[in-house]
Amino acid sequence: MANANFECVRGPGKARVFVAGSFQPNGAATTVSNVKGRYFTVAHTAGANTYTVTLADTFNDYDAIQLQIQSPTLGLQVQVLAEPTFSTTKQFVIGLLDSSTKAAVNDQAFQANTRIHFVVWLKNTSLGANY
Asked: Helix (H, G, I), strand (E, B), or coil: what is residue 19?
């Protein structure tokens, strides 16, 4: 553990929180490998090559989701596939796609240097968008 005092992340607006994490694809298995981060779980849908991230709690809304893939394989991209439902199912779905065709790629086999990263900025208030 770092021997320092840390402040909370701050930004415009009130009642904002973030959840960040990463994981490694694990072929056709429904589980993923080497999950880093807290407050979420990840499930893989084999064949479709999608990853459903489920948060531990509901949130009223979100401001942004940032995704990134770390991979030695060229031509891969990640994107959010549908409107997230943090107020009900607590989920968003990540698709792993071919960057040229935008089609789902085959189930990504485990590779030590492949990892999907995400950050979700969430609103923990029911007040309007300008709050």
From this structure: strand
Residue 44: inside a domain, yes or no?
yes
Residues 6+ apart with CB under 8 A from 7: none
Amino acid symbol at 62: Y
Strand partners, 97: 77, 104
Domain count, the chain: 1
Q: Within a domain: residue 6?
A: no
Provide the residue range defining the domain that includes 20.
16-123
pLDDT in tens, 52-109: 999 999 998 898 999 999 988 878 889 999 999 999 999 999 998 888 887 777 777 7
Residue 76 in contact with residue 105, Cβ under 8 Å? yes
Q: Where are the beta strands (DSSP E) in the chain?
A: 16-24, 33-37, 40-45, 50-55, 61-70, 76-80, 91-98, 115-123
Pick the closest to residue 103 from 66, 52, 51, 49 (CA basis). Answer: 49
